[in-house]
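User: I'm preparing a small set of examples for a lab meeting where we compare how different chains pack in three dimensions. I only have the primary sequence for this one, and I'd like the structure in token form so I can line it up with the others. Please keep the answer compact; I'll paste it straight into my notes.
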Amino acid sequence: MNFQLLHPADQLVIIMQRIYGYGMTTTSGGNLSVLDENGDIWITPAGVDKGSLTPDDIVRIKPDGTKIGKHEPSSELPFHKMIYKKRPDIKAVLHAHPPALISFSIVRKIPDTHLIPNVHHICGEVGMAEYALPGSSNLGENIAKVFGEGYNTVLLENHGIVVGGENLFKAFMAFETLDFCARLEINANRIGKPMPLSPKNIEISKKKQHVAMEDFTPVSHSSLEKAARKEMCKLIHRAYNQKLFTSTQGTFSQRLEGDSFLITPYGIDRKYMDVSDIVRIDGDKKEAGKTPSRSVMLHKYIYEKHPHINSVLIAHPPGIMAFAVTDVAFDSKIIPESYIMLRNIPKLPFGCSFMQPELTALEFSKSVPIALIANDCIIVTGESLINAFDRLEVAEYSAKGIISARSIGEVVMIDNSKISEIEDAFKLK
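Assistant: Understood. Below is the structure token output for the 429-residue chain.
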């Protein structure tokens, strides 16, 4: 889907549906706007259920102040107008109240955008606007002032967040990413002390580049490949809906025949990824006209070195990633299912997955199907795509269980004698 070809009213409805559907605002909370090429502001209405918003509900405000639409515009229209006036480069504004970012706004702290790579790149520096009455000119002035200092992402004291962007999807991507970052930091603080990337590792992260690969044009697509593309898209959508992925982060791959495999593309919205977006890799060549994930070489080496592995997933869910950004080890010996599915989970050093992909691939085995990369990601392998996806779910649910358990008592692991029983019963040795 080419989001930018949609009418502004449709854009606003689609993004509000995503924000509301993922629990990042309430029925009455939040507002979005788009500034079009004519200087018209398209904005969500006041007093209309965000869960059932339609394009007919969107209000159009002409440059002369004329209102077109059957509803009143959001009461926060003043600060939208002030942002557009202060920052002519901004063409979309998003305001919402996701719980994690609310938590930061009420303690008046900024989420640490250096816990994992790309967050700072997507969100930029985050500002803080002084509290003022919602809908007031004072609030608008306070927000516009911070935007005028060059910030595109601004927390509001005891209120929520405002994000501006060159288009609505980019504003949403920054909003979604910062919300993820906030949830990750909150989880990390519940189990230990978050450790952000060092300046050295920030520089290392910049070395992650697209791999130069020759193009090829497929002459045909087997039934196996078509089925794999369909299954990948179905599970990618599921991963996004379960907040295991964000819009542009998270990678699936699936082995085909010979030295061929399918992999998710770089920079395509996971919510609407289609079978035609998936990239086929044949040996050292990529499908023409497409850009594969930057982790393509790691996937390639894992398949080359482990014939039993047929699928690889890379993700950053905020539960398991809490263990990746602290010095707390993740242990799967909490319930039988966790150990059966996850087994042993090493934590590997930051940067190894893209600076030494071949060596990193050697870390996996039948007893080590998963690895955490410090301050980066979780890598999950499986005998099939659904097997790998199941493991990703179990890892995140297990991490959430441990994080919650630590708030109510001492975490007690299954002892080694009982682990031996599990290994014997399920033939894991």
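A couple of notes for your slides: The longest helix spans residues 168-191. The first strand starts at residue 31 and ends at 35.

User: Perfect, thanks.
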